[in-house]
Give the backbone structure.
Amino acid sequence: MRRHLRRSRRKFLSPRAWKVRLVFWTGAILIGLVCALLARLAEHANAAFLALAQAYPLAPLVVTPVAMTLIAWLTLRWFPGSQGSGIPQAIAALRIPGKAAILSLRIAIGKFILVLLGLLGGGSIGREGPSVHIGASIMFSLGRLVRFPPHYMERGLILAGGAAGVAAAFNTPLAGIMFAIEEMSRSFENRTSGIVTVAVVLAGVTALAILGPYHYFGVVEPAPAPTLDVWLAVLVCGIGGGLAGGLFGALLVTGSQRLAPFARRFPLRLAFFFGLALACIAWLSDYSASGTGYAEAKAILAGTAEYDPWYSPAKFLATLASYLTGIPGGIFAPSLATGAGVGADLGHWLPVAPLSVMILLGMLGYFCGVVQSPLTAFVIVMEMTAERNMLLPLLATSFLAYGASHLVNPRPLYHTLAMAFVDKSPQSRTSGSDAESKPRAHDKSRS
């Protein structure tokens, strides 16, 4: 016992251990600051585009495709590896030996700037996926700066950075931890679990200190206690939302793969084409389909938005077109907004429960159908809405949506997209297969 205490004391007081702690703590605070700044600037960029669209309704038909083309050029020329959500890059970095091509301070800076430009140009994109990419890049870069040798610590840096990005972006610390477990690593190593948790807490507290105490969608009006009609809504929204979310994921994955050869040869033409398609969809929706969708989803959840049966299809298509342009931008927030619209549609077509319940469950069902991470989706929606009366219906909806989504899209969205980065990695082509098949002795729990 005394020997164990002496060993623990030496480990706690060792300079090496404190260097590790300081790097994680510094990185977490920096991630919180960057994500809070991105949140503030994203709101201004979104508002600036909507102001332009209201003043000159036809201007985005020219501005949006030109902006998407310019952003695609900047991405390819100066920030290759920053395209898309950013979550696939963070997942791929856990699997390939060489990570600098997809995780670096240069990419973090580019992601930050290009996401804001995408919102300024009218893209239907979110900042949450990019926050994961930025967080993982910051942590990984700090680790390289102080030269962390152990491989498991490198993985811990990436996991902690990505999880801290989720926590700071949504103000959802539990969701950040769950995201690291369920989505990024598909396992959780005992050696890194503590530092990931501390990083999530520090990033969340930092963002909270800047943005103030808040729930992402505010405090939603409390739902009634679960009754028979609520459980009928679980079936309708879990299956309906999951199928719709799975369809989005299938179209996004299939479209990305089918268009990959054309994207390699004519990336700017593709960006202009889908940018024009995005502009037309946004114009037909009176530009409600543009931006993150945060304001629209919040209004739908609060019951203050006028019912629009075309909102969810428009947001669905606008988000798909935005992703296929190849610009940096996430799908978390747009998917939540689309899901709120899907819940409102289901509430009008099949009013088996109060509309507020249908909207909440529909949002979760669709979101889980897209990301196919039921526990992460459940915790995110629970923390964002401060909903406590329907924990069991929310959890049941999430798992039901997960099963329904797999019927349409059996390939997990982010992990399928991550394989594109794994396959393109030179290190992966030369030694990746060996690295995957022969894990290091001190890292037997690699996923």
The chain is about 75% helix and 0% strand. Confidence is low (pLDDT under 50) at residues 430-447.
